[in-house]
Amino acid sequence: MSKSLRTLKGVGEKTEKLFQKVGIFNTEDLIRYYPRNYDEYEDTATVADLKEGTVKAVSAFVCSGVYVNSVRGKQVISITAGDETGRVGIVWFNTPYLKNTLKKGACFVFRGRVIRRQGKLQMEHPEIYTPAAYKEILHSLQPVYALTAGLSNKTIVKMVQQLLKDQEMRSEYLSHEIREKYHLSDINYALRTIHFPEDREELMESRKRLVFDEFLFFILAVQLLKEKTEVAENLFPMKKTWTTEQVIENLPYRLTDAQLNTWHEIERDLSGQALMSRLVQGDVGSGKTILAFLAMILTCENGYQAALMVPTEVLARQHFEAFQKLLQEQGLDINAVLLTGSNTAKEKRLIYEKIREGKASVIIGTHALIQEAVEYQNLALVITDEQHRFGVKQREALTTRGNPPNVLVMSATPIPRTLAIILYGDLDISVIDQLPAKRLPIKNCVVDISYRPKAYSFIERQVREGRQVYVICPMVEESEGLDAENVIDYTKKLKQALSEDICVEYLHGKMKPKEKNQIMEDFSEGRIQVLVSTTVVEVGVNVPNATVMMVENAERFGLAQLHQLRGRVGRGEYQSYCIFIQGNGEKTISKRLEILNQSNDGFYIAEEDLKLRGPGDLFGIRQSGLLEFRIGDIYNDAGILKSASEAAAGILALDPDLSLPQDEALKKQLYSCMKEGLENFGL
User: Same structural domain for residues 277 and 132?
Assistant: First the structure.
């Protein structure tokens, strides 16, 4: 079904590049670019009914002339509008063409966010409709898409409408029995109404079908992979060794009971007849890394190679240095190498040679570990850090270099066990549910935006004491129609609010890898005191000197993700603090954030988050960063996830490799999705 975006009327080179910026490269990507929210067009309010912090539509007359001035490089257009109940100021930014539209005495419907400036209510950058045009969309749901600078919501709406009108019907790939059993709509209906639903009922119906499909394909792919690994014999027989016992004895701290239990499970797997395929789930700071190091030492003591793959170069370097330090302290003679994209061509050649000849027993690095040029001599153990950043495909890429090795996956993502069993169907699960005794609990607070001046003073005091600070914003740059803090503007704001001698820099996912690595290195070495970032730091580095984590618009993140962000601090000897700033005053959100205030236990938080989200919580906060499904959310949609798991089990019980004629369409769609849209899982 996929075609070039240029086949759409109105898409030239410039628009195509803007679409590519948000991950839309063809028409299939566009149809699967689901709205992130929907605007519900309600009855108009009177001026007297307007309240701060709400989005309202008001039918009013233009009462003044149009005033144009410039504020911080932005052209601001302002008018006064009113009805029989009062008057309100309205402003727009960088829209000079409105001067010709807003004639004094004309009546319009203005719809936008109401804010308070200098003690007075005003409407900021509202949409403008004639009363007749507004009547046409009244009570409808209009899609709101995630945007980038230069790409408007109107453009996406227009292109999706055109695509839906011109695209041929898709053949249904789910059997009638499955659709009937789980009350699922037709795929063509679902793809049309997810973009343009008539009402909430239609929206819920189409969303349910698309979420079900996404989970079903993921689970089928994982189960098909499991079939391959379950029959695999362990071709790297290992014996338990005294060396690991001595390392544990000589550590400057005592392993917790949970760590010891998990270590014994890993040790038992590695010395068993079948290949190990284990997920170690441990809360942030629970001590998973030392278990990975012990597993690598055991592997090397048995004469084999072990590889540890992590998401970032800075983290790879930190693990490498920590492992080298451990070897030195314990007097162990193991040759370890660090392999990342930053190695020079000459360095890579030498490292490849060491790996190929078996002179390097431990290989620590990033995705560079799965490049074609890397040849392992006897790779017996593969450890991936933070499963959701790699996924099945990268794991499999490492497991196809010679005989399949044992696999150990380390994850700090606190997924409730019931869901973890479904999602990680190809892995046995260990849980480290204790924190080392020496760690100071993080002090938390949930506040509103009025607390910001105090927070800035507190940040300044912490920096003066030699500490460092993270500030998290939900967006990279300003976005049309989205009222939330962004990294670029917030960095400027902080530089003005804090003393000149405090180094404030920003970090976000759109930066080049080299820039990101440099910023993280400067922060970890103390050259940057305050780092303003998106959630890209969630799987970051270990900076024991960082003691403050401040999250702006905390209501826009999932609790499990906020908890992981909080785990970036509290890693050293100093008391650490987490400040969650709620950008709106909704009570239900305050209740959710209060869970974080009360507990530092990630698994408790994940379970509580699950309880708070009913199946009807359509606009719940997506857990971005946690298994990034396009539309599904393992917390909001736990019920659909369980149904999809049941359906997948039923399909595979009757047709284990999807080879029967009735499953041909499903198989095609599964492989199409694996190829086209599920790279986030690495399927």
Answer: no
